[in-house]
Amino acid sequence: MAGAAALTALSCAMLSGGPAAASVLPAPYGDLNADGNIDLLSVSSTGALQYWAGSGTGSVASPVAEPSAGDFTGDVIEGAGNFNRSSYQSLFLYSSATDHAYVELGDNTGQFSTANEVVVPPPSGEASWPVITQLVSPGDITGHNRADLVARVGDQLEVIPNVALGHYGAPVAVAGSGWSGRTVIGVVDATGDGIKDLIARDDATGVVWLYQGVAGGTFGDETTRVQIGTGLDAADYPFVITKGDADGDGHADVYAVGASGGLYLSAGNAGGGFGAPTLVSSDPAWTGITALG
Q1: How far out from the chain centre does Cα 246 lie?
Q2: Fewer CB atoms < 10 Å away: N or C end of the chain?
Q3: pLDDT of residue 84
Q4: CB within 8 A of 271, min separation 6: which ones?
C-alpha cells in the first residue's frame, strides 16, 4: 500500500467530512457514485484498483482504472461504508505488509486517491490491527451510527465496532468458529425483520448459509444457521459478495467472480435464497483479480 499520512488534526478534519458534506444526502450502501445503484471495486493482478459502476439491472459498466488510489498488492479491501458519517462512501483497506488499516475517503464519483487517505488506529485495547484475511462493512450494526467492520481473523469472525471518529472498539467474536474455511458474502437484512443478517458460504462445498442477525451487532452460529443456496464453491468462484439488491427487484443478490474470469450474478428471490450464477460481464479485467469489495 502506498504510504499514508499520520492521523493528525488534518486527517481528523478529512474524516469529519467537512461542512459541505452535511448538505448532501448519503449515498446508499455500496453506491460509490451516488446514482442509487450498487457498485464494485476490484484489485488487479498488478495491484491496481478498478471501479465498476453498477447499472441497477445487475450488469456493470467497463472498469475505470484508479491510478491515484495507490498500489493495493496484497491488501484486503471493502469498498462501501460511511466511515466518517459524511455523505460519501469510503474505501477501507487492511495491508498485511504494513500491518495498518487505512481509509480513503470517497467523493461520490467512485474515485479514490492516496491524497485523501488516513491511517486508522488499531481497535481499542489492541497494539496493532489483527491479521485480517477478509473484510466487510455491514454499515451500522452496533448502534453508533457509523460503519462497523466484520473481519475474518484466522478461524474466527469478529465484529469491530466503529465507536467514534476514526476509532474502533475492541473486536467481538461472533458466529462460532470454522471461518478459515468460509467466506463472508455480505451482511444484509435477508429476513425482513430490520436486523442485518450474515450471509456466508462454505468454500469447499459452495453451500450458502444465513446466520440470522441479532440486535446489537451479533449473529447466530453453525448450530442455528439455515442453508439458502449452493453452487458457489471457491474453486469455481473465488470471490463472492453481496451489498444488497443489484438488479432492482427488491431482493439481495450475490455477485461472483469466476475462476477463469467473468462476473456472475446469483439473483435473490422472495424466499431469501439465490438462483444459479448468470454471466453479466465478460470483461477481461475480471481475470486474475486479487480482491473484491
Answers
A1: 14
A2: N
A3: 62
A4: none
Edge-first strand listing for the sheet containing 100-104: 75-78, 91-95, 100-104, 117-120
> Distance (Å, rounded) from C-alpha 156 to C-alpha 222?
13
Superfamily of 40-292 according to CATH: Tachylectin 2 (2.115.10.10)
**Average pLDDT across the chain, whole number:** 87
Residues 102 and 1 sit within 8 Å (Cβ to Cβ): yes
**Regions in the chain scoring below 50 on pLDDT:** 2-26
**Sheet holding 156-160: strands in order across?**
134-139, 148-153, 156-160, 172-177
**Residue 194: strand, helix, or coil:** coil
What are the two backbone dihedrals, phi and then psi, of residue 9, each rounded to the nearest 5 degrees?
-60, -35
Task: Dig out the grid coordinates for 54 from the structure.
Answer: 453498477
155: which 3 cell numbers? 478461524
Written as one string, the DSSP assignment of 145-188 is: SS-EEEEEETTEEEEE-EEETTEE---EEEEEE-GGGEEEEEEE
DSSP H or E segment with residue 13: helix 9-15
